[in-house]
Structure formats: C-alpha cells, structure tokens
Amino acid sequence: MLAEADLSKPEKKWPLDLVRCEDCSLVQITETVPPESLFSDYAYFSSFSDTMVAHAKTVAMRLIEERELDQNSLAIEVASNDGYLLQWYHQAGIPVLGIEPAKNIAEVAIRDRGVDTISEFFGSEIATRLAGEGKQADVIHANNVLAHVADLNGVVAGFATLLKEHGRVIVEAPYLGALIDHAEFDTIYHEHLCYFSLTALTQLFAKHGLEIVNVEQLAIHGGSLRIFAAHAGTAKVETAVNDLLAEEAGWVFDESHHVQFARRVETLRKSLVECLSTLKNEGKRIVVYGASAKGSTLLNYFGIGRDLIDYVVDRSTVKQGRYTPGTHLAIHAPERLVVDQPDYCLLLTWNFSEEIMKQQQLYRERGGKFIIPIPEVHVA
C-alpha cells in the first residue's frame, strides 16, 4: 500500500511470470522480491477477518483434543501474524510460541493476545537454536506461509528439527488444483513464490525425513490443502493421501492442463473489463472492496484503474488512508459504502464473499450490488 506522499515517486516493479518444473511438478514465479521488502512491516492482520479467526479456533481446538495437549505441551506457529491462531492454545493453558518476521504485527500478538512471539524469519538456523533451548513442539502450524518463502528446504528442515518425535506439522497452503480449476490467477503475486500440489509437497517433505500422513481439501481462500506431516515411519499414512496423489497424476504433469488455465484467464479479463465498461458507460458508479494483494494482481493485470473505479474500501484500519499500488486508488473504511451508496462494488476479496456481503447487508438492501469476478463474472 502507498502513502499519499509516495504517489509522485517511481514505484518499484518486478516481473510476474509463472513456470512449472517438469520433474517435481512445483509451480512457481521466477522473481523473488527480497522478503525484507515484503514482510518486515506488514499490512495484513489475520484478525480483521472473522472467517480466519473462526477457522483458526476450529483447528486449534481439534488439535488440542486429538493430540491430547496440556500445560506440558508446546504449540508453535511459523508466520504467526497477530496471534489469531495461537491465542486459542494460549487460552486453553497450552504454552505457545509464535515466530513472526513483521515486528509491527508481532507486537500486536504480544500486547493484545498474550502470545509469546519472536520477530524473525523462520528457517533451519532458528529451529536449531530453539531446539537447543529445549523448545521442541508437539504441533507446528504454518498457515499460508510456505508459499511465501524462497528457502523451502530450510523451512521444512526447520520443521523437522523443531518437531518432537511423535509431533505433527500442520500446513495450509492455496491448492494448485483449485487455482487452475477456478481460474484463480489473482492468487499469483510476489508474496506467493510457489503454488503447491500434494505431489510437490510430498517430495519436498520427504527430503527432510518428514512424511505427509493426512491431507484435507478446504474451501478457504478459494481452495486450500491442509497437510499433516510426521517424522517418517512414526504414523500411519491415511488413504486420503494416496487417493489425492492418484488423482493428481492425471493432470499435474500435463502441460495442456496448464495452458488451458492461461486461456481461461484471458477470457475472464475480457468478460470483466467489458462488464465494468458497460456499467460505466451507463453512468453507474463502481468501487472496489478489498485492498488485497490478490486485488492488486487483478487490477493491474486487467488494466482496471481510475477510469472505471472510484475508490477502494477495506476493513483493515492499517490500509485505510493509503493507496493501491499501480492503480493509485484511495482506500477508505467499508462504512463509506452506505454513506456514498455506489451502484456496484467489485469484490476483489471474493474468497471472503459470504462474510463481507453479510457485513454489508444494509448497502445491499439500499440497492448496492456486488460484482464477484472469480471463477466467472457475476452480480450478487
């Protein structure tokens, strides 16, 4: 996000090209932006999303019960953000440790939620240090972070070092299969270096003595994988793992499958731009909900800017008063929708559409409509 003073300055830009490894199936972008530029002072706070907080509580309560955790256990989260997940372990009396590189967010976790948090980038070095201090974990969470790291091997090696003999690593990441099936191209941005299939994750974890023993497909974020990993040979591998690997064998190495995805994105671009242009020519006022990274990808790649959009609203107070990168749209609080009552709101955080439209019921009752762009353009 840009401050007003930044609008007259040149913006840094990086290529956004997507490639696939023919050997291991890993899909990734070709350019790595220095992580210090992206994460040291971060604008995304997980707790601004009610959906994310509820999602975190559910998985934490489940793991407490299944793993029989108590005051002698330890729950660690890598990229723990503002304590949105670890707070539930903490409230249950289970010791926790968050590892969060963004100092501004780590401070919120400590101050507001009592979650012990260290502000560092996670890797094998910090894992070795913590293990040497006796801080090995019964559960290690890594939600929506594995896609962000350049040193994948260092991070997964760190998991293996920190995990107790019979512990579990629980990783959630956007699923490549859902991205392709639903044309979720906006999930591709510079924070997301990699786009995982179970096939690729299985090979990655095996290199470090970890075995994926269960997998679940989740609807959150447009389609995610939740994997459960253990030290190899210490737990039974559930049938869900082999079933999904068999399913992926039919497409994960198929080049035509990936090419078709690119064609669908181009069709989507034409459809959305035509929709917005028609509405604008009819005199309709259009704004955006969601000053998200995925929204920046969509707006900039589709060439949608101030000629079509008046402004952006976002629930995050950290983003309000700032401007979107590339398109320079002003960001306001969502309450402006009811005050201003624009005709249409392009919902770029479509992965939280149910939550957002419920919050904006008054705007809708007064005639406001949401345009949801993915997987196909439709009005709600």
UniProtKB/TrEMBL annotation:
Show where the Methyltransferase putative zinc binding domain sits: 3-39
Residue ranges of every copy of the C-methyltransferase domain listed in the record: 220-375
What domain of life does the native source organism fall in? Bacteria
One Pfam family this sequence matches = Methyltransf_14
InterPro entries membership: Methyltransf_Zn-bd_dom_put, MeTrfase_14, SAM-dependent_MTases_sf
Q: Which PANTHER family match?
A: BLL5978 PROTEIN (PTHR43861:SF5), TRANS-ACONITATE 2-METHYLTRANSFERASE-RELATED (PTHR43861)
Q: What is this protein called?
A: Uncharacterized protein
Source species of the chain: Allorhodopirellula heiligendammensis
